[in-house]
Amino acid sequence: MREIQLGNRDAARRRVAFVNGLSLLPETEEAGQLADYLIKSGLVPESVRDDALHIATATVHGMDYLVTWNQKHIFNPFRIEAMYAAIRKWKRTPPVLIRPDNLGPD
C-alpha cells in the first residue's frame, strides 16, 4: 500500500481505488528473513528491499503467482531461475513470476 500511494496523486488515487477491497497479505517475520536472504544472495539490491519483500511475502503465503510490471528486480528474465533456486533452498515453493501481459490468451 505504501508503494502504490507514491508518485502522481491522480494515478496513486486510481491505484488505491483499484485495490480497495482486496485482501492484503501481512508481512511476516519469515518473509522479512527471506527478503534479507534474497538481498544477501545478490538477487535483489538492498536499495529496493520492498521488491524483495513482495517476492518473499508471496512465497511465504503460498501464492501461485506474483504478477508485476517490475522487470528490473522482480520479473527479471536474467534472474528468475536464480530467484526460484534461492527460494527452493529456503525450502519454499516460489510463486511464478509473471508480467500481466503474459496472463491471458494472445
Number of structurally distinct domains: 1
Individual helix count: 4
Number of strands: 2
Q: Low-confidence parts lasting 5 or more residues at pLDDT below 50? A: none
The gross shape turns out to be globular
Helix content: 40-55%
Structural class: mainly alpha
Distance between the termini: 31 Å
**Averaged pLDDT:** 93
Q: Mind describing the biggest β-sheet?
A: 2 strands, parallel
Strand order of the largest sheet: 1-2
Question: Could you spell the SSE succession in H and E letters?
Answer: HHHEHE
Radius of gyration: 14 Å
Strand content: 5-15%
What does this structure look like?
- By secondary structure, this protein is mostly helical.
- It has one domain (26-102).
- It is built from four helices and two strands, in the order H-H-H-E-H-E.
- It has helices spanning 9-19, 29-40, 49-60, 80-89, and strands spanning 65-67, 96-98.
- A two-stranded parallel ribbon has the order 1-2.
- Helix 4 (80-89) links the parallel strand 1 (65-67) and strand 2 (96-98).
- The chain is globular and about 40 Å long.
- The termini are far apart.
- The model has no long low-confidence stretch (mean pLDDT 93).
